[in-house]
Prior knowledge:
Order of helices and strands of chain B: EEEEEEEEEEE
Distance between the termini of chain B: 34 Å
Oligomer: heterodimer
Helix content of chain A: under 10%
Largest sheet of chain B: 7 strands, mixed
Number of strands of chain B: 11
Helix content of chain B: under 10%
Largest interface: A-B, 23 and 22 residues
Shape of chain B: globular
Strand content of chain B: over 45%
Largest sheet of chain A: 7 strands, mixed
Radius of gyration of chain B: 13 Å
Structural class of chain A: mainly beta
Number of helices of chain A: 0
Number of strands of chain A: 11
Strand content of chain A: over 45%
Amino acid sequence: DIQMTQSPSTLSASVGDRVTITCRASQSISYWLAWYQQKPGKAPKLLIYTASNLESGVPSRFSGSGSGTEFTLTIGSLQPDDFATYYCQQYHSYPRAFGQGTKVEFK
Amino acid sequence: QLVESGGALVKPGGSLRLSCTDSGFTFSSYGMNWVRQAPGKGLEWVSSISDSSVYIYYADSVKGRFTVSRDNAKKSLFLQMNSLRAEDTAVYYCARNRPAGEVDYWGQGTLVTVSS
């Protein structure tokens, strides 16, 4: 089974900061990776699919990159609405796996 | 829009059936998933079912206890949960797969609590 490891687990940042979250797969998943944003009490929201494609309606300050086993989610200039928890998920094979999440909090 | 129902407080060893109903898209054209989130924890994939129910997958943690099914005529997804354990306590989300596999629509979730 493929394991997904995110880092860091928590990230303290300020509005306007550039933020990068890393996700590593235990084996190659090509580009079959998605990123989700989740706010407390809400369902996750798709941000990025196939590693680098921006979901419709998602602000362009979000970007994704990587392939194989290492991936990054970057928020170009952190906005107040971006303080949330972010998850990566591989959909290369079953069982599907999520990373453990990265909470972006106010510094 | 996906709407889950059926969450409840149940005793260990008990059973529960969750439902998820679609009200906005061509349900029969999409694979579907159940994803859960224990209180204060991360997301955990539980099960997936293809559009025609030919392909079904389960996480090891629920295999043999949970059964996923769907009724395309009723635009509904189900999760039959048996032999429930305390560690099954979570919000259960139903979610839609795009053809490539990414999950693009999620329900609001339904809470399952397993406790004596």
